[in-house]
Amino acid sequence: MKPFIEIVEVGPRDGLQNEKVVLEPAVRADLVRRLETAGARRIEAVSFVHPKYVPQMAGAEEVMAELPPAQGRSRIGLVLNGKGYDRALGTALDEVNMALSVTDGFGLKNQGLTVDQQVDMLAAVIAGRANAGAESGAAPKLSATLSCVWGCPFDGEVGVEQVSDLVGRIAALGVREIALADTIGAGDPWAVTRKVEAARKAAPDAALRLHFHDTRNTGLANAHAGIEAGVTVLDASVGGIGGCPFAPGATGNIATEDLVYMLERAGFETGYDLDALIGTARWIGEKIGRPAPSALSRAGGWPKRLNA
After folding, report:
1. Contact 167/147 with Cβ under 8 angstroms?
2. Residue 102 in contact with residue 163, Cβ under 8 Å?
3. Which residues contact 26 (CB under 8 A, 6 or more apart)?
4. Half-sphere exposure at residue 5, Cβ-oriented, CA atoms within 13 angstroms
5. What phi and psi values does residue 230 have, to the nearest 5 degrees?
6. What is the chain's mean pLDDT, rounded?
7. pLDDT tens digits for 60-79?
8. What is the b/e burial string over 193-231, where b = at least 16 CB atoms within 10 angstroms of the residue's CB?
9. Which residues are marked as active site?
10. Which residues contact residue 271 at a Cβ distance below 8 angstroms, ignoring those fewer than 6 apart?
């Protein structure tokens, strides 16, 4: 069997949150359905943040109401704090992803919390889950994403020990999947290798996931380095759209279709339909009023199909 790489689709959340155009919940739900038709099995569908700060994510509950449970699919909601987590529990989400920052600078800008305060907040959420019987299936699965692992727009460079220390603290709370995010696209393949290896030593029992932005054109190279280091779960955004409203200069994620193309040419399985992904990237480009920045939305796949 060919090796399988799981791609978590984040376009409906991370992809749309930095766009100027604010799409209605029904359109965002349509994007989720199109991506699932194209092969997405885990998809970050919504974010429970205050619409005053991220209007693009308003109406998360309405998006989820348009998405009845589907066999073999997992819909993820991003939360920044306990209030967002409580909102998420009121929907049919399968997973909740708690965002934390490895730096005080970004944590204060993004959530109004230092690193230590974020860890305390996560610990309180986990304690509440235990009291509610979450481990018996009464609540969605919980994962964590650590922002600014390869660089912070406010605090600058981020050290390996700074990352591994936080990974260890999060894993000690019982979080089973931890995503390392290059929020501003500052990483390089060699730094990816170093921090993945350090994170694995700090949390040997946790699954690692990688989340790369292509701000400086190193996204796919970083994804390759992560896979070479043994990571088998990566985030990507259809069309390469995305960015962070609280990270100056941050641009889109690595494009799902570009990543799928690279992996499948190399012999990996992803479970995605490349042509359907390219079509979805072009469709969302029309909705946001600009061409999707991904390479494959312009060039198409290869070999060329006569009817493509």
Report:
1. no
2. yes
3. 62, 66
4. 29
5. 105, 0
6. 94
7. 999 999 998 888 999 999 99
8. ebbbebbbebbeebebbbbbbbbbebbbbbbbbbbebeb
9. 244
10. 4, 39, 41
Whether the CB-CB separation of 172 and 144 falls below 8 Å is answered with no
Instruction: Collect all residues with Cβ–Cβ distance below 8 Å to 231 and sequence separation of at least 6.
Output: 196, 208, 209, 210
Q: pLDDT tens digit string along 248-283?
A: 777 889 999 999 999 999 999 999 999 999 999 999
Q: Tokens in use for 227?
A: 């896979």
- C-alpha Rg value of the chain to the nearest Å: 18
* Count of CA atoms in the C-beta half-sphere (13 A) of 271: 17
C-alpha to C-alpha distance for 282 and 297, rounded to whole angstroms = 6
Decide: 145 and 100 in contact? Cβ < 8 Å: yes
The runs of H, that is alpha helices, within the chain are 25-37, 60-65, 82-89, 104-110, 115-131, 160-172, 189-202, 219-228, 256-265, 274-288, 295-299
Residue 41: CB atoms within 10 Å? 17
pTM given for the model: 0.95
Say how many residues make up the chain: 308
Cα–Cα dist 151/142, whole Å: 25
Low-confidence residues in the chain, pLDDT < 70: 1, 132-138, 305-308
Report the pLDDT value the prediction gives residue 298, as an integer from 0 to 100: 95
Count of other CB atoms within 10 angstroms of residue 136: 7
- In DSSP notation, 34-97 reads HHHHTT-SEEEEEEE--TTT-GGG--HHHHHHTS---TT-EEEEEESSHHHHHHHHTTT-SEEE
